[in-house]
Amino acid sequence: MYNKLTIFFWLVSYFCLSSWLYAETTPPRSGTHLVQIEDGWVRAVPPQLTLTAAYMQLKNLTDQKLTLVGASTLIFTKVEMHQTVFEDNMARMVPVEKLVIAPQEIVMFKPKGLHFMLIDRQQPLTVGDTVTLTLQFEENKTQTIKLEVKEDNGKDSDHSH
Predict the structure, then answer these.
(1) 13 to each of 10, 19, 25, 26, 65, how far by Cα in Å?
(2) Structural domains in the chain?
């Protein structure tokens, strides 16, 4: 009887732990969006340049704060969040390690402000192409978005990249 009870206990423990681990590492179900993206785009650059920037309006759709910790794409080796800072009439980029977004808050990623720096392009990009970007949040949450490559219209342009 003791062996059967011990086996039962271990089986129950295993399934409870497995369920907990699965819940902790499983991203939101397909169709569940953490954020809404509007006006998203990637700046078109000449073929000899291997870095560019991505911009968008990002809205937290949840009723909890989200912490954006990074992004990735197959088209660029590295993606970093940057904030443009102006000091003594000079612009410089400051890395942003994480960005806390309050429930329903809208955050603007725009030229001369907060933006994603896309570094070391691995394939050619032309106007009209799409860049798939995976946003990475704390707690293993992700959301994949698509951004169109567009010409910079010059308005609010940040030429320091």
Answers:
(1) 5, 10, 18, 20, 32
(2) 35-150 (2.60.40.1890)
